[in-house]
Amino acid sequence: MNQVRILHSLEEQHVRSAIAIFWEAFAEKFHIGFSNADQVYRLFHDSLNRDNCIVAFRDDELLGILTHHTAQGEFFDLRVGALFGRFWPWRALPIALNLLFLSESVTPDEFNVSSISVSAESRGLGVGTKLMNAAEELARERGKNLMSLDVAGHNNDARRLYERLGYRVTATSRGRLIRWVTRDPVVHHMEKPLAP
Question: Is the CB of residue 140 less than 8 Å from the CB of residue 194?
Answer without folding.
Answer: yes
